[in-house]
């Protein structure tokens, strides 16, 4: 195996009470793509900061190759002191780094570089931070929740960019599909210790369940052995005193091991409070429009949502998802068209920005609205501490101020408050942000099994596929289309391939930017492609197919974890060949797209 660029071993760190890290280990060699997973509060971000040199452990060894460059993406980037985004991004470059790389990344992340830091949204700040850490092409790239606040198109681009980088990548993310597509190894941080699986995240959950089952069996065997030894102490034949004392000491050690064993973390219990059943019709929209100045956000959209439907809204940031959501729920009036809400609707809403929470307010006060120690959940009085336990909060946290919660804990708190309210229509805007895998799975089960109706906005493709019955997506110019099924079903109905998606976008942009194009080039003009153009149009698909197959072979080669160790020179050559083939594929696709659009224009 190639020598590691980074190696942490026996890392220990305690912030009072139970150790956060207790002998944790983490290593990465050149080109490795590693998922760092674990429950919220398990210490993943802390371990990543130790790897970056931002926190010193209380014990353990930290080794970084002296010549290796390390870049760390924090959850909350600090842009103070920078005049604009370009200055912030270029500050991450070293003397020998290419400034054009920074420009390339900003362009692909939807930034001009002229944006002012104070004017950035959460998604824009995250994109700027990504450009800053990726621009130097460091030897080690440490990413903490890189997909938070990113739209789907940027997430998919980031997947491809990370897959082809030669940097070692260690990343924390709640986006399961993102982890499945990027990673080739998984490190599980659990109860202060780490376990490593030399396979990508797609294999993690099955492996984790096997590990926990084996641990449970071992603990059971230890308990049975203690019972046997105690029986021997009481009723066994007395042997030499020295031997008895040795056996007694071993029993005391086993008892200590049994008592000190920290079982697997408990699971949250999520149950939405049921309201009276709504009418069969929940929402009916007919021909609704919404514009802000010259910007048309929604144009002529109609839908009919019935009781039991689970509808997902997807699209890039700024497309108008939240605007459409507010119109459908009656919070915002359309400029034209009508929205009719059904009868007996009880709506519980989790908005994207999250409702304002006083950071000084305690958890108990927030959940009960300051009305004593109890709250009504599903028609039953529940003590606030008991209800908090359902969402993995400890009893002593009842008096904890909200400001002391981690991002994941705050997300669970907001969900706890929303789900305590009686509802037959759940409106969830980005509900998966900051949730750990286990809590995400429970939310997924709750949404999929909710007896009422659900409308949700999400960039989590796996979550959408597992929960919704239809997807509403933008189609350009304020037009929105509803597709049956989940996110993958929507892609299949749209044609599935990125090439066709690009063609559709290009055609939409042509129509929007050139409203008189149809007059300038009337249908059926009688013009035809030249022989050379027609030949290229016919032959390009075969070339594209051949290059795509070549890319698949190269990707399969570099996926072999032993390749780098076996032949580092060939590994680097394969990486270079892969980049070249991807550039060739992009050029061929662009050429085909232009010729196909020209053919359609000529033939009408």
TrEMBL record:
CDD domains the UniProt entry points to: ABCF_EF-3
Domain of life: Bacteria
Pfam families linked: ABC_tran, ABC_tran_CTD
Subcellular location: Cytoplasm
EC code: 3.6.1.-
Binding residues annotated for ATP 2, in chain numbering: 315-322
Residue positions binding ATP 1: 38-45
Any one GO CC term of the record: cytoplasm
Enzyme class, first EC level, given as a word: hydrolase
Function, in words: Probably plays a role in ribosome assembly or function. May be involved in resolution of branched DNA intermediates that result from template switching in postreplication gaps. Binds DNA and has ATPase activity.
UniProt cross-references to PROSITE patterns, sorted A to Z: ABC_TRANSPORTER_1, ABC_TRANSPORTER_2
The protein's name in its UniProt record: ATP-binding protein Uup
Keywords: ATP-binding, Cytoplasm, DNA damage, DNA repair, DNA-binding, Hydrolase, Nucleotide-binding, Repeat
Renumbered residue ranges of the record's region Disordered: 506-525
Organism: Mesorhizobium hawassense
GO biological processes: DNA repair
Transmembrane recorded as keyword: no
Listed SMART domains: AAA (SM00382)
One MF annotation (Gene Ontology) recorded for this entry: ATP hydrolysis activity
Domain ABC transporter: 6-216, 283-520
């Amino acid at each position: 195996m190639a020598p590691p660029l980074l190696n942490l071993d026996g890392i220990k760190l305690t912030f009072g009470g139970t150790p956060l890290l207790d002998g944790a280990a983490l290593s990465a060699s050149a080109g490795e793509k590693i998922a760092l997973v674990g429950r919220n509060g398990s210490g993943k971000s802390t371990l990543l900061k130790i790897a970056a040199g931002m926190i010193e452990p209380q014990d353990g060894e930290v080794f970084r190759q002296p010549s290796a460059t390390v870049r760390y993406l924090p959850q909350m980037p600090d842009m103070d002191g920078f005049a604009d985004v370009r200055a912030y991004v270029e500050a991450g470059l070293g003397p020998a780094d290419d400034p054009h790389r920074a420009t390339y990344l900003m362009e692909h992340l939807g930034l001009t570089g002229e944006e002012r830091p104070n004017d950035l949204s959460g998604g824009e700040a995250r994109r700027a931070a990504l450009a800053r850490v990726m621009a130097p092409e460091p030897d080690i790239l440490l990413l903490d929740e890189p997909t938070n606040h990113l739209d789907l198109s940027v997430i998919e681009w980031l997947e491809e960019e990370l897959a082809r980088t030669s940097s070692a990548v260690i990343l924390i993310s709640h986006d399961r599909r993102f982890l499945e597509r990027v990673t080739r190894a998984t490190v599980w941080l659990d109860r202060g210790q780490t376990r490593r699986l030399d396979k990508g995240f797609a294999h993690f959950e099955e492996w984790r369940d096997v590990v926990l089952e084996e641990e449970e069996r071992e603990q059971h065997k230890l308990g049975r052995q203690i019972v046997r030894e105690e029986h021997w102490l009481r009723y066994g034949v007395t042997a030499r005193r020295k031997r008895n004392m040795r056996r007694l000491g071993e029993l005391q050690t086993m008892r200590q091991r049994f008592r000190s064993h920290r079982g697997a973390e408990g699971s949250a219990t999520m149950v939405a409070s049921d309201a009276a059943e709504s009418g069969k019709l929940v929402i009916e929209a007919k021909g609704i429009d919404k514009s802000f100045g010259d910007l048309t956000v929604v144009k002529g959209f109609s839908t009919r949502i019935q009781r039991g439907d689970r509808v997902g809204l997807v699209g890039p940031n700024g497309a108008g998802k939240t605007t459409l959501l507010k119109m459908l729920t009656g919070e915002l009036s359309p400029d034209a068209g009508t929205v009719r809400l059904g009868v007996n609707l009880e709506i519980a809403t989790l908005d994207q920005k999250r409702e304002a929470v006083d950071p000084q307010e305690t958890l108990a006060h927030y959940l009960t609205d300051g009305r004593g120690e109890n709250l009504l959940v599903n028609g039953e009085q529940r003590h606030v501490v008991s209800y908090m336990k359902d969402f993995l909060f400890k009893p002593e946290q009842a008096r904890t101020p909200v400001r002391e919660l981690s991002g994941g804990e705050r997300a669970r708190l907001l969900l706890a408050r929303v789900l305590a309210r009686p509802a037959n229509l759940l409106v969830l805007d980005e509900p998966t942000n900051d949730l750990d895998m286990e809590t995400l799975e429970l939310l997924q089960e709750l949404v999929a099994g909710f007896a009422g109706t659900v409308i949700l906005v999400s960039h989590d493709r796996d979550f959408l596929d597992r929960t919704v019955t239809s997807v509403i997506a933008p189609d350009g110019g304020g037009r929105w289309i509803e597709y049956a099924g989940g996110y993958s079903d929507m892609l299949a109905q749209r044609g599935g391939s990125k090439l066709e998606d690009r063609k559709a976008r290009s055609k939409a942009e042509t129509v929007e930017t050139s409203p008189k194009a149809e007059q300038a080039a009337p249908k059926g003009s009688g013009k035809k492609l030249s022989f050379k153009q027609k030949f290229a149009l016919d032959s390009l698909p075969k070339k594209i197919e051949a290059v795509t197959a070549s890319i698949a072979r190269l990707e399969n080669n570099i996926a072999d974890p032993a390749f780098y160790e076996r032949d580092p020179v060939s590994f680097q050559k394969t990486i270079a060949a892969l980049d070249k083939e991807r550039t060739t594929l992009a050029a061929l696709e662009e050429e085909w797209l232009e010729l196909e659009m020209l053919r359609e224009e000529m033939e009408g």
